[in-house]
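Appendix B. Raw example, untouched.
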Amino acid sequence: ANKIIMVGPFAAGMADDEKPTPVGLMYGVELHANALNTILMDQFLRPLPYWQEMLLLAATVLLTAFLVGRMRNPLWSFLITLILLLLLFAASNQAFAQRNLLVPFVMPASAVAFTFVSVVLYRVLTEGRERRVLTETFSKFVSPEIVKDLVNRPPTLGGIDREITVLFSDIRSFTSMSEGMGSQELVRYLNEYLTAMTDTILAYNGTLDKYV
């Protein structure tokens, strides 16, 4: 009395009703026994509500974009993404084991991976374009070493405080001296002087502002 008995073949070779399940093959009577146990124990699987699925998806995407976007090193970005995936997998398993709650994993995990790839590609493309713009702009005015430094450490809004040396060089009595020279002689004189001064400045990674 008050007992439930289930009868069915339960051995290899005599049972021909093996069914595929998420945990492997089960005999038909096993499936019935598990279904009955779920009913008696009132442990039904509960899917996550749709709005919570969308909230989880949005949260994982935004969190990935925020964290990966702050990482300059692609390796660190990849590690952060991997940690997020592992945390999401662990939370999904825990919700299933402790509360019989079906938390989707594939969709948020795919979104995390897609966000990671998108942020990294965007950064590569934009940084490459910024580096080209910086190189093309400043190579007209400063030495290659300074251009390289600017590319590796782009200027920030507001500038950076640095101690520098500024040289203002003049030719004494240039006006009266130039009045006694012909135009060709004056040009040769200026070329010789300005070449020597400019070469010295550039040899020490200096920047020539202008000739007046």
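End of appendix B.
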